[in-house]
Amino acid sequence: MPKKLRRNLSNKERIIRILVGITLCVLSAVKVIGSWGYIGILLTISGLLSYCLIYKWLGISTCVDNCEIDLDDEHR
């Protein structure tokens, strides 16, 4: 039985999250900012997955079209 995941991030927001997340991680790694910069890992992961748990809790979605992703059980 295929499972479905509803995306809640638009493509623009995904790109912004990935770029900001990587930038924060790099700046933190080279000691330009403090260790709080590693929160960029969460931004990068949410951008790659097109899914934000906080948005789900708040009932927000910036996804306009093609928001369902099929998760195929056969590849597990």
Describe the structure.
- The structure is a single chain.
- This protein has 76 residues and is mainly α.
- The chain is 46% helix and 11% strand.
- It has a domain at 11-58.
Topology:
Elements (H helix, E strand, L loop, with lengths): L2 E4 L4 H19 L10 H10 L3 H6 L9 E4 L5
Antiparallel strand pairs: 1-2
Write a short abstract of this structure:
This protein has 76 residues and is mainly α. It contains 3 helices and 2 strands, in the order βαααβ.
Pick out the low-confidence regions.
none
Extended strand count: 2
Count of helix runs: 3
Taking the alpha carbons of the first and last residues, their distance comes to: 12 Å
Strand coverage percent: 5-15%
The rounded Rg comes to 15 Å
Shape annotation: elongated
